[in-house]
Amino acid sequence: MGTLRQFIGKLRLRLRGRNHVVGWNMAPGEAVSFIKSRGKVVLTFFGYSGMGYEDEKAMLHIAQEVLSRYLPEKIIVNIGGNEIGIGAIYPLAKSMRFETTGVASIMVLSYPAEISESVDHICFIKDRQYGGKLPNSDDVSPTSKAMVDCSDILVAIGGNEISRDELLEGKKQGKPIQYFPADVNHEHAIRRAKYLGSTPPVSFLGAVHDVFGK
What we know:
This protein is an alpha/beta fold. The chain contains eight helices and seven strands; from the N terminus they run H-E-H-E-H-E-H-E-E-H-E-H-E-H-H.
């Protein structure tokens, strides 16, 4: 069923025609090679993807302040392809004349409507999960490996487990990291906890804050 939904997702994106899809089933190194071939410094935003922010305007204000420090002709803005949550930065980046890229697991092809129309180039990575660490391993998944390896500057505005794992990988590689605290959407977080049968969250600052907010 998942493969069928991904196939339908491909068709929908092709028909939409808003994004340059670099590849549908890429290895991490292929995605990194393409993004680096653009000849710009890669600034990647990490945060809440798919869940949204309690105060999206505040998040976008932080992003605008960060981006205002850089020249659009020198920087690529990279995120995870999704338009929800941290991906709301894509239209902002485009309005500021930045080129944009996205690195996403092929898993997201099951939800093509959530892929931002403001991603210039998107690389779909062959992966069995959305990102984060591999099961019973300290290694990150192919999607997270591509995300970190292509990045020169890592900027986190909040973020949960996948972002935390990617930032820790970036730190291991000695890459510069900036962190800004931000609450995940409270209602969504409470609803997700109920769905998973876990206790409601005490804090809405996310897993990234537990590591980088100290």
